[in-house]
Design brief:
The complex is a heterotrimer of chains A (about 550), B (about 170) and C (about 240).
Chain A (H helix, E strand, L loop, with lengths): L3 H16 L3 E6 L2 H5 L2 H14 L6 E6 L11 E5 L6 E5 L7 H9 L8 E2 L3 H4 L17 H6 L4 H9 L2 H11 L11 H10 L6 E6 L8 H8 L1 H15 L3 E7 L3 H16 L15 E7 L8 H8 L23 E5 H13 L1 H5 L9 E8 L5 E6 L4 H8 L9 E6 L5 E4 L9 H6 L8 E6 L4 H15 L5 H19 L4 H17 L3 H5 L2 H18 L9 H9 L1
Parallel strand pairs in A: 1-2, 6-7, 6-9, 7-8, 10-14
Antiparallel strand pairs in A: 1-3, 3-4, 4-5, 10-11, 12-13, 12-14
Helix pairs in contact in A: 7-11, 7-14, 8-9, 8-11, 10-12, 11-14, 18-19, 18-22, 19-20, 20-22
Chain B lengths: L3 E6 L5 H7 L4 H8 L1 E4 L12 E7 L2 E3 H13 E7 L1 H5 L28 E6 L9 E3 L6 H13 L13
Parallel strand pairs in B: 1-2, 1-3, 3-5, 5-7
Antiparallel strand pairs in B: 4-6
Chain C lengths: L2 E6 L2 E6 L4 H7 L23 E4 L6 E2 L10 E3 L3 H17 L14 H9 L15 E2 L5 E4 L8 H10 L4 E4 L6 E4 L16 H5 L5 E3 L13 H10 L3
Parallel strand pairs in C: 1-5
Antiparallel strand pairs in C: 1-2, 3-4, 3-5, 6-7, 7-10, 8-9
Helix pairs in contact in C: 2-3
The chains are: A alpha/beta (about 550), B alpha/beta (about 170), C alpha+beta (about 240).
Chain lengths: ~550, ~170, ~240
């Protein structure tokens, strides 16, 4: 059983072990870099270091996500001695470049091909959730301990009452990062107050929005942070069992998460008599079977219980009647990952970041027509323009910005006139979109808004569970109408029917999937109605849809 | 001047027209209050201009149906879809489920020349705007009477009893 | 609190705490359409016909799964709610082949009756016309998937009352369908007891007793509340 003192010793030893090196080559081994050959790069660098006998002074460390995912495999070359700490990133590194990179490093020169670590993509970020991502080896608990892992948990268990933990989370102003933005402290208090012989905490890692992978990255890069957050939550609400519900596609995340749970168990940071106290908490990983709707909390519960993953009407809310009918606290990966820093540094510190009603930071997956594709963590309230044109580096090939899609299939498209809007829950909702889980897809003049709406509607149609009528059939009919528009065969009446059906599906569907499925249509109609009208006349202004081919043929 | 009434028969079984005739003695009243200008029941070859009310029986199944209903729509003020074939496609539309041409297998002696059929049988309102729908297979004589009288009186017909099927 | 007072369409109504809104509406003779709900089976809130507006709630709520609370203010009918109900019915009629004129249940069908009652007299959406099979492998019963509205009454009665759980739902979205056992022919089911409860609770002509012609298939559901009470041990 690890006491706070023992934990401190372990952390100190881990830091000392790291401190002997003068150089460090951090190789990204998160899923996207691995898929572009990161493992071979790591092996080539390790072989090169060994061949040159540099193993004593230079460490090759497999780490999690370095953020600039479109440039993978990425290696961070870190010099720790001499002129002080310096860091350069080698993008798209190939195994045969290992010798050259190591040679220049040994000669105390920056790599030939590199991105400075202080470009706006990095320097404008404020990393709380992803603080350790790309820095520590996600497969070693010692690495997590070295950067303060589990300190907050042991502090809570030994120095704080559950009520004090609840207060701290409440004070932080943290809101759910999964999409809806419900105040986390309020949710925790409700579960703490709910009566039940057994309570559960659940981590929702069924991330499924197209183009979004914030949660996957955190699980692959710093799994201990999430486990620690869950354990703190369990202590605060009086739960002894926890589940992490991960989609099956996230194999690497599942592997690292399971390893992390075993390591924490072995050190007595999970399980019985945690950290030398009488508190116990067991965590299990449950793997989803590939249904997007299982990210909806009641469908997720049904799936964990072994049933068909379909939602049920709320109320009753899971906080009162959740898993196996017991009070259940469900938060998503990013929300849980915010908890340890809040406990360690205090709710007030957290509340000092962000805007009045949206506190802290948010991780976004920048994707689409933007120079720097990847993960960024910025304070809430950062303007869209800054995210896209400074962190993101603007639109490639000199094309004109058209819209940014936030919130995935439940979100909407925000046009250029609102680029100065701050990214926070309320503003995005006012603009007809949502914060969602953090997907941010940038579109330029070559993207057709009808086509975009059609894509997302097709996604919702395919992912509808089929339980309630408006979502099951309504999404199909909406997609038909959008197809007719794209073909250039839609009439004024079809456009009116499209709007009427959006209203019906939005207000009568059972769960969030159906209720928000019309959002991409409604938001593009709001800002780009002229594009829809052009399609009525058989013309696609962006030249994407068949409608334009038809009108060209007619000319 | 009496309002000008027409009835047409597209792809249907004529059951709706039979039901129309089932109005019995009320037909006399209807005949005095409307002027019947075109119908399978009378001898008029060309669909006239300036028709006030047209009752359409049957679904739109062929190129000829399509041309006919477009012309009729252009010459009619109030178009009424009469019965399930006009309203839903009903039995004629069952062939939409089959691969093209396969529906002909129901005939002992299928037509030797190609039928200018549409790939999909459509309800009337999918092809032209329709003002009023009267479902039923067939709609009852009472419901048809109510529609005709309500249109004369300029009020919405009360056909709550009307339903799909019989 | 064991009793509460509600205001339904401006009218004062009393209810026992813990009752569902639908139960209270029915007790008071207030009509709200339903399709998936059936007294004696668990409520699932899937068909959305019983959606009502409750003051102070951002979303419409299904009466069948919503528990009443004191001073709840409910609107059961207005232009918008009735329009939504017609819209949902339109979607159901567009989804599969509900050709009433050739259906065994015509004249005794809840879907057909609701359309007439709510004035849903035509479908503006594309008919989807999925090619679906009829499973007539059972000696006494058959299922025509073309008439199924996925209300899951058959699934629930088989699970909750008969205890066989022969029926379940497979597939997702518009491709969802009810299956017997592991999507095997009904006649080869090793769990089906041939009790016929699924046929009786089916609101449309999807499940029927063989040998019935158009309009001949009448369903009887009166047994259900009694059996449900007996299963709970109450007379």
């Amino acid at each position: 059983m690890t006491t706070p003192d023992e934990l401190g010793d372990l952390a100190e030893r881990a830091r000392e072990a790291d401190a002997v090196y003068c150089e460090r080559l951090r190789v990204c081994t998160a899923a996207s870099c691995l898929s572009s050959g990161g493992a071979a790069v790591e092996a080539a660098l390790a072989a090169e270091i060994a061949a040159r006998g540099l193993g004593e002074r230079c460490q090759v460390k497999p780490v999690g996500c370095l953020g600039l995912c479109s440039q993978g495999p990425i290696v961070a070359v870190e010099t720790l001695a001499g002129e002080g700490r310096a860091e350069h990133l080698v993008p798209r590194m190939q195994p045969d470049e290992a010798a050259a990179v190591v040679e220049r490093m040994a000669a105390e020169l920056p790599p030939e091909r590199s991105i400075a670590a202080d470009i706006p993509f990095f320097s404008r970020q404020q990393r709380i959730v992803t603080a350790n991502c790309g820095r520590i080896d996600p497969n070693r608990i010692e690495d997590a301990l070295a950067v303060g892992g589990y300190e907050a948990l042991l502090h809570a268990l030994h120095e704080m009452t559950p009520a004090e933990v609840l207060d701290e989370v409440h004070r932080s102003g943290l809101r759910g990062r999964g999409g809806a933005g419900y105040p986390t402290g309020l949710k925790w208090r409700t579960v703490a107050k709910a009566a039940g012989a057994q309570k559960y905490v659940i981590c929702n890692a069924d991330e499924g929005d197209p183009g979004a992978y914030m949660d996957r990255s955190v699980l692959e890069s710093d799994p201990h942070r999430v486990i620690e957050g869950m354990a703190i939550g369990a202590y605060a609400v009086g739960a002894s069992e926890g589940y992490v519900y991960v989609r099956a596609e996230y194999q690497l995340a599942i592997e690292r998460l399971k390893a992390a749970i075993r390591q924490a168990d072995r050190l007595g940071l999970l399980g019985s008599a945690m950290g030398g106290t009488s508190f116990r908490f067991h965590v299990e990983v449950r793997i989803g079977a590939g249904a997007y709707v299982c990210g909806e909390e009641t469908a997720l519960l049904a799936s964990i219980e072994g049933g068909r993953g379909t939602p049920r009407p709320r109320p009753p809310y899971p906080a009162e009647t959740g898993l196996f009918g017991m009070p259940t606290l469900i938060n998503n990966v990013e929300t849980w990952a915010n908890v340890p820093p809040i406990v360690r540094r205090g709710g007030e510190w957290f509340a000092s970041i962000g805007t009045e009603r949206s506190k802290g930071t948010k991780v976004f997956a920048l994707a689409g027509k933007v120079v720097n594709n990847g993960l960024v963590e910025v304070p809430m309230g950062t303007p869209l323009r800054e995210m896209i044109f400074e962190l993101g580096g603007g639109i490639p090939d000199g094309a004109a910005f058209k819209a940014v899609q936030t919130g995935g299939p439940s979100g909407g498209c925000i046009p250029a006139e609102h680029l100065d809007a701050p990214v926070d829950y309320e503003t995005l909702t006012q603009l007809g979109s949502i914060m969602g889980s953090g997907g941010m897809i940038v579109m330029d003049e070559h993207d057709c808004m009808v086509d975009v709406a059609k894509f997302f509607m097709g996604f919702c149609r395919d992912e509808s569970c089929g339980k309630c009528v408006p979502c099951r059939v309504g999404t199909v009919e909406l997609h038909h109408l959008l197809e007719a528009l794209a073909r250039g065969s839609a009439s004024e009446r079809d456009l009116a029917l499209l709007e009427e059906l959006c209203d019906l599906v939005r207000h009568t569907s059972l769960c969030g999937l159906g209720q928000s499925a019309p959002n991409p249509v409604l938001s593009t109609l709001r800002y780009f109605r002229d594009e829809y009208r052009a399609h009525l006349a058989g013309r696609c202004p962006a030249g994407v849809c068949a409608a334009s081919a038809r009108s060209e043929a007619a000319q | 001047m009496r309002p000008r009434l027409a009835t047409v028969w597209l792809d249907g079984c004529s059951g709706c027209h039979m039901s129309l005739l089932d109005m019995d003695e009320r037909l006399l009243d209807v005949a005095t209050r409307y002027e019947l200008v075109y119908s399978p029941l009378i001898d008029a070859k060309e669909f006239p201009d300036n028709v006030d009310v047209t009752l359409v029986e049957g679904a739109v199944s062929t190129e000829a149906d399509l041309a006919k209903i477009r012309k009729i729509r252009g010459r009619t003020r109030t178009l009424v879809s009469l019965g399930d074939c006009a309203v839903t496609g009903n039995i004629p539309a069952l062939r939409n489920l089959l691969p093209p041409g396969e529906a002909l297998a129901v005939y002992d002696h299928p037509p030797r020349s190609e039928v200018p059929a549409l790939r999909h049988v459509q309800p009337v309102h999918q092809v032209v705007p329709v003002e009023l729908h009267l479902p039923g297979c067939p709609p009852s004589a009472d419901a048809i009477h109510e529609v005709l009288i309500a249109l004369l009186e300029g009020r919405a017909p009360d056909v709550r009893g009307a339903r799909f099927g019989n | 609190m064991s009793v509460c007072t509600l205001f339904v369409d401006g009218r004062e109504v009393s209810a026992g705490a813990g009752e569902t809104l639908l139960e209270v509406l029915r007790e008071n003779g207030i009509d709200v359409p339903t399709l998936c709900n059936l007294e004696g089976l668990s409520a699932v809130g899937a068909c959305r016909m019983c959606l009502v507006a409750v003051k102070g709630q951002g979303r419409l709520m299904p009466a069948c799964t919503t528990r009443v609370w004191d001073h709840m203010e409910v609107t059961t009918h207005d232009e918008r709610l009735d329009r939504y109900r017609r819209g949902v019915l339109e979607l159901l009629f567009a989804e599969r082949n509900h050709v009433c004129s050739v259906c065994v249940a015509s004249g005794h069908c809840e879907l057909q009756s609701l359309a007439a009652q709510l004035g849903m007299d035509h479908v503006r959406f594309d008919y989807l016309h999925p090619p679906l099979a009829v499973d007539a492998s059972h000696p006494r019963f058959a299922i025509d998937h073309n008439r199924c509205i996925l209300c899951t009454r058959c699934v629930r009665v088989c699970d909750e009352i008969e205890g066989a759980h022969t029926w379940d739902v497979a597939g997702r979205g518009v491709k969802a369908w009810v299956v017997t056992d592991l999507a095997e022919p009904w006649g080869e089911s090793s769990t089906c007891t041939s009790c016929g409860k699924c046929v009786q609770v089916c609101p449309t002509g999807s499940l029927f007793v063989k040998g019935h012609a158009v309009g001949e298939m009448e369903k009887r559901t009166a047994f259900l509340p009694y059996l449900a009470r007996r299963r709970k041990g109450t007379p």
